[in-house]
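Most newcomers find our protein records easier to grasp once they have seen one. The structure tokens are whole numbers drawn from a learned vocabulary of backbone shapes. The record below serves as our worked example for the rest of this section.
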Amino acid sequence: MLRRKKPLQRKTSLRNKKPFWARTKHPHSANWDHQKAKGELARRKPMRKVSRARAKRIKTEYYPANNAYLSLPENQYCHLCISRTTGMTRDEMMRAFEKHQFSMEMLWTQFLLAGAQLSRSTEIHHCRGRAGKLLSDHRFFASSCRNCREWPHANPREARSLQFLASAAEWNTVPKNS
């Protein structure tokens, strides 16, 4: 059996004058010093909004794809404005652009007759989501102006009928035929 040289002594009294919550330092209290104090846990860093890998992928894949898509002549103007004014679905509009049946003069006259304004596209709307490969898949891009950017999510039923928003089952899923 081991014998202690000194008897054990209590470091704190059995009855403290302050309650426990008043004895501990708290980040919102006036005496918090923002440094790791003796016996306290270090403050945690906030969680990253975008992981390093995702940020790298956005910089190397998405931005070049975005700029290339917006620089094409058929994507110079907002697809959402065109579709909402003419009543054409996204697929019909894209087919008309591919066959060169949709000239800019025709667009301007339709917009002037409808009393609408044709806006230049500044942003990309992802019709099917942005998860995984969909982030840079130009098949599911739609060029949009700042005014129309939030319209598909604010009016999902109408956006689905114009094919600017995928159904809930297809959202953020890559099609199997790709």
Summary: The first strand starts at residue 123 and ends at 126. DSSP finds seven helices and two strands in the chain.
